[in-house]
Amino acid sequence: MGNIQAPRGTYDVLPQDSAKWQEIEQTINRLCNLYQYKEIRTPVFEHTELFQRGVGDTTDIVQKEMYTFQDRGDRSLTLRPEGTASVVRSYVENKLFGQPDQPVKLYYTGPMFRYERPQAGRMRQFVQFGVEAIGSKDPAIDAEVIALAMDVYKSSGLKSLRLVLNSLGDTESRLAHKQALIEHFAPSIKEFCGDCQNRLEKNPLRILDCKVDREHPLMATAPSLADYLNEESSAYFAEVKGYLDELGIRYVVDPNLVRGLDYYNHTAFEIMSEAEGFGAITTLAGGGRYNGLVEDLGGPESPGIGFAMSIERLLLALEMEKVEIGQDRSLDAYVIAMDAASKKKAVAVVRDLRASGISADMDFTDRKMKAQMKSADRKQARFVVVIGESELESGKAAVKEMATRDQQEVAFGELAENIQKKKSLGE
Ligand code: HAM
């Protein structure tokens, strides 16, 4: 039997890459604090019904991409394909709508699961960072949410970004548009794939999203939602754009932008990478407003807006723009023991250094001094502390600063303080 490999569409983050992940997570945590979004952690699996009702029965996500299973108690559970439905469930279940300060501003980072065809930037397990602001329909919060998404990319070092914006309108506008779409496609619906035929009455907007019938001539001439926005929806959209202008955030309006999830209305947006060499998938983040979702999931009227981005695509974009992040966290001190007696002392010295906030390491394979020295070099230790017979006798260790080759005898009790001082001098 062959060796077991990671399942298709999954991958390991190895130590040489995890520093990048940590740096991005730090950026996310820092910015969310600046914008005052608080972290929420919800389960990785939920009742399947949550996504059927939340994300929508006619979406590709629910129809084709969910990891759904029966547990031993015969419940239908699903690994979350996205975060919004879970966060809204939690907002309702924990009565966050009752908190005096609305909107409740939340963020999350964690793995999501979709059974998709894996390619660059498309995985079956991927990590989304997302935010949800629930309990306000102020267009200024739409602009804030978009600004936060852009800020995460800019703070990470990305430059080639494009913000694409659309309004999906309110229920009335959407119904008018839906009717127009049905009338547009119905006479020729037999020429479309089975999925589209099913979508015609239920959710004709999804037809525009179809990958199979993309080239059908009726696609290009389909009625545009922009022409069916009522006055209120247009006014709302104008205000969102006004706030974005105020914030100096540039955008392009694309009336064909439809999102792959059913809960959206009014503001919808995507952020694309314009970096050269990016594969077929250039969407970095997507989001929008969902004014009916809280009610659909059993809560009181609480309009919301949010977005999500995968860390994988952010990392891909950084690579394409040749932005380097996550430099290896440096090793302060490598402690070398020359013999068995010195090793005991080395173990204690390493502990003392760490207790003082100095990163420290040593050899655990009983290698000769020369090999340990090489190891210290490879690990790019700033200082090497050498302990041997004579050091044990004199009560002092030899401390060598690798960059300058300066060497000094330092009493064991003063090692931490000495290295700390040298460290801060060099910084
Ligand atoms: P979404 O457009 O389905 O929206 O996904 C958002 C982002 O997740 C995408 O732009 C992409 O960065 C990432 N993503 C999605 N699928 C994959 C995949 N298979 N591999 C790697 N990355 C992926 C949502 O999920 C909504 N919940 C966003 C939202 C939050 N809307 C309002 N609030």
UniProtKB/TrEMBL annotation:
Keywords: Aminoacyl-tRNA synthetase, ATP-binding, Cytoplasm, Ligase, Nucleotide-binding, Protein biosynthesis. PROSITE patterns: AA_TRNA_LIGASE_II. Coiled coil: none annotated. One of its GO terms (biological process) is histidyl-tRNA aminoacylation. One of its GO terms (molecular function) is transferase activity. The keyword Aminoacyl-tRNA synthetase applies. It comes from Planococcus maritimus. Residues 1-318 form the Aminoacyl-transfer RNA synthetases class-II family profile domain. Its main location: cytoplasm. InterPro entries: aa-tRNA-synth_II (IPR006195), aa-tRNA-synth_II/BPL/LPL (IPR045864), Anticodon-bd (IPR004154), Anticodon-bd_dom_sf (IPR036621), His-tRNA-ligase (IPR015807), HisRS-like_core (IPR041715), HisRS/HisZ (IPR004516), HisRS_anticodon (IPR033656). It catalyses: tRNA(His) + L-histidine + ATP = L-histidyl-tRNA(His) + AMP + diphosphate + H(+). Homodimer. L-histidine binds at E82, G83, T84, R114, Q128, E132, R259, Y263, Y264. It is an enzyme of class 6 (ligase). Its EC number is 6.1.1.21. It is found in: Cytoplasm. One of its GO terms (cellular component) is cytoplasm. This is Histidine--tRNA ligase.
